[in-house]
Amino acid sequence: MDRNKIHGFEFTGNDGEFRLQQPDRSSFLYFPLVNEGGMMSTVTPKLHGQVTTGHNSFLTPPLSVEDLHNSRASRNFWVYVDGKGAWSAVGNSAKQNADFYTSSTDEAVLEAGFLWQRVTRCNAEMGVKAEITSFVPSGNDKVELMKVTLTNTAAEAITLTPTAVVPIYARSADDLRDHRHVTSLLNRIYTSPYGVEVQPALSFDERGHRINHTSYGVFGAEGDGSQPAGFFPVQEEFIGEGGSLDWPEAVILNNTPEIGKGGGVQREGYEAIGGLRYETLTLSPGDSHSYIVVMAIHNERIDVDALMNKYGTSEAFDHLLEETKAFWADKVNMVEFHTGDSDADQWMKWVTIQPVLRRLYGNSFLPYHDYGRGGRGWRDLWQDCLALLIMEPAEVRSLLLNNYAGVRIDGSNATIIGQQPGEFIADRNNIPRVWMDHGAWPFLTTMLYLDQSGDLDFLLQEQTYFRDTFMSRCKERDTSWDTSLGSDLRTTSGEVYKGTILEHILLQNLVPFFNVGEHNNILLEGADWNDGLDMGADRGESVAFTAFYASNLLDISRVLRTLKTSKGQETVELAEEMKLLLDSLGEQVDYESVSGKHERLNQYYAAAPNKVSGIRAALDIETVADDLEQKAEWIFNHLRRNEWVESEQGGGWFNGYYNNDGEQVEGEFAEGVRMTLTGQVFPLMGHAAAPEQIPHIIAAVDRNLLDDKIGYRLNSRFGGIQQNLGRAFGFAFGHKENGAMFSHMTIMYGNALYKRGYVKEGHKVLESLYSLSTDFAKARIYPGIPEYINEQGRGMYTYLTGSASWLLLTMVTEVFGVKGKLGDLLLEPKLVKEQFDSEGKASIKTIFADREFEVVYKATGSLNYGEYQIHSVTLNGSEVTLQRGSGSAIIPREELLSLQTEKCHLIEVTLA
Q: Where does the Glycosyl hydrolase 94 catalytic domain start and stop, copy by copy (predicted)?
C-alpha cells in the first residue's frame, strides 16, 4: 500500500457499504453511531469521538472537531507483545503518532455501512493485525459496542496482554471547563466482574445541586464471555506520574492491575477511566482471539450481569450487528434510485439517511456541531418533514399537527423546541428574537403533505397556539404572564383557544405582509434562513423571503378555491381579530403605504395582545382567496418593478436584502459586484420571477457566483465586515455563510430551476454538488452532503444538514417526477441523458398512498429531456388509462388504494 497516496472511498456493496484505505491520512473524519433510544456516538478511524445521550450526560469527554486530532483521550485498545512492547490497536499511541510521517509500519483500512464502522490495522514489526468493529445497536438501550479481533501475522507464536481503555467523563458538557476538577470529586467509581461504573453523587449546578441518578460504565469480556483479569478505574493511576493517555504507564510497563479479577473495589473523588485488563495469551501464527467492549449509560445503577448477558459475547455482537444493519437498511431502502451511475445511486443512500440522523441528533452532538444543547429549531422541524414525507409518511400527519402548536397569535413562533413532539418551551434565555422566515416554511411542508395525501380535512383540524412572555413579534413583553399560566394561548375568559390549521397558516403569512421596512419589503428582524444575517434588526429587509411569502399567499388562495370546489367549503372560520389582516374585506390599506401597513399591524396587535376574544368570524372563502391573491400579486409587481438589479452586462437579477442602514445590498458597485444566491432562489422557486427574467438570473448566477473550484457560492465577495447586515461577513470569505458553497441553498437553487422547467441547468447544479462531495482528495468526507464546501474544497459540518432533505425531495419529485397532486400520483420525469443506464432505463423505488412502488422509466428514443414524452404507463403489467398533462401523466388515487399494501407494485413508463 502506498502510504503517501490519497485514496478515495469506494463502494463495495449494494447497501451503501464503502471502503477507505489509510483513513488516518485524512483529518476531521468522523462517523455517526446512533439509535432511536437516544444513544448518540461519534467514532473516527482512530476511535476518537464521544459517547452521550444528551448535553448533561456524556460518558466520554465532550469534544469539538479540533479535539479529534489534538486530544489524547479516546477509546483505545492496547496490546503489549512480549519482547516488543506496547502497540495501540487503534493507532493512538505517542510512538505511533510520532512515527506517523516517517517510519510507522501501520497499515489501516476502514470499512463502514449503515451504521457501523470497522477498522483493520496491521503492524508487521509487532506481528499483529487488529480488526475493530463499532456500532450502536438498534433498539432503545443506551449502549455502544466494540469488538476487537487480534490475529497473529508473524511466523512464530507471540504472547500478548490486551488492555481496553475508555476515559469516563460522566457528567454535563457544562463541566468541561467550569469546575472540571470539583465535579470529579463527586465521582463514585465501582468495579464489578466485568468493568468500571461511575455514578456521580450529585449533578453539579450552582442554581441547585441535585442528586444524580445517571450511571456510566465501560465493561468487557473475551469473545466467549469470560471476565477480564483486572481493572484500572482511576485515570491518574493508570497513566502514572508524567504519563498520558497515549503513553500510559500501566500499559507501557505492563503493570499488574491494582484491582484483580472480580472487581468489587470502590473508589471516590477522581477522574475515572474504564481500564480493562484481559488475560495474557499466546497466539500461534494465523490464530485469532476476540474481545468485547460495552459502553453504557443508564438512568440508574447498571445491572451489569444482565447487560453482559445480552451484549458480552462475540456471538451476541455478531447477531446484533446484522440486526442493526438490517434495521438501517430498511429505513434507507424506502427510497432507492437506479441510474446510469451506480456510485451516485449508492451515494444517494447516504443522503437519504441524513434527515434521519438530524432527527436523532438534532443540531448537536457531532464534532462540527459543538453548539447548542440538543434538539432542533423551528425551521428544522418543517424541513426535516420534507424527507419524512417520502421516507416515513405514516408519521408525518401527527408531526405536522403537533408542530403547529408552536405558532404564536402574533404570527411568530416558539424557538425552543422540547424533546417530545409538539412540546414547546417558553424562553429560558430571555432573548427576544424572531427569525422572519420561520412563518414561511410550515405551509410549504404542509402543501407537500396535501399533495402527497389529498388530506384537505387536515386544514380544518384544530390546534392550540403557543404563548409566552413575548408579544408583537418580540417587540413587547406581556408582564401579566408567567410560567405558571402555561404556554397555551387563552381567551379573555381564560379558556384555551384553538384555531384550525388553516387559521395558523393564514396568520403566519398575513402578519409578515404588513410587517415591512421603508422599502416595503418584509423586515429582516433577527435574521432569515441565513442565520448569519443577524445585525439588521431595525431597518434590514429580506427581499428574498418577501418573494417566498408572496408565493405562499398565492398558493394558499388556490388551496382555498380547491376546498370550495372539492369539499364544498363555502366559508373560512377565523378568529375575529384576523379580519384586520384581511383588509380587503373591510377598510383596505394602501399597499404602497409603509405607514399604512404599520398602522394596521399595530391595530391587530392591540386587538390580540397575547390573548383573543374567542369569537370566530365565518368569512366567504372566495372573498378570502381574493384578498390573498391581491396581496400576492401586489408583491410580485413590487419586486419586479423595484427590486430588479439591472446589470451593465445586460439582464440582471433580484436584490435580496436591505441592510440596517436602509441600503440596497446587491448590485454592481464601484468596489465590485454584490450578489446573493438566496436572493435569486426564492423568486425562482415561487411565482415572483417573471418567465422572461429567469434566463437573466441564471446568467448572472453563473457569472457572479459560480466558481469552478467550489461550485455555486452563497454570495459574492462583499468586502469587509458588514456590521449593518450580519456576523456572516466577519467570517473569512469562502467559509460558511460568507461565500462558501452552502449545500442547502445550492440544492434549493437546483430545485427552483427544475420547477421552472430549466432541467439542464438544474441538473448542472446538482451534479456540481455531487462532484464536490465525492472528490475525496479535496472534500475529505465520507459519502453524503456536507453543510458547506469551503474555499479549499473541504466538506464541512457533515451529516446534520437540511440540504439532505431538499436533495432527496428534488430527486424524487422533480428529477424522477414522482409526486402528488392533491392525493393523485403525478408522473413528470425530468431525467437527462446521463441518468439513464446502458439500456435506456432509470428507476426509483418509493412510497406513495401507503404503498410501495417501483417506477421504471424506459426511453425508446431520445434520452434528452425535452425530446421525449410519456407514451404509455402500465401498473403491474396492466395498461393505465392516463389523465394527461403537459409532459406528465396522472394515476388517480382510487386506483392506487385498491392495491395490496404488502407488496411492491411496478409502474412502467414508456418514454417516446
A: 327-559, 624-817
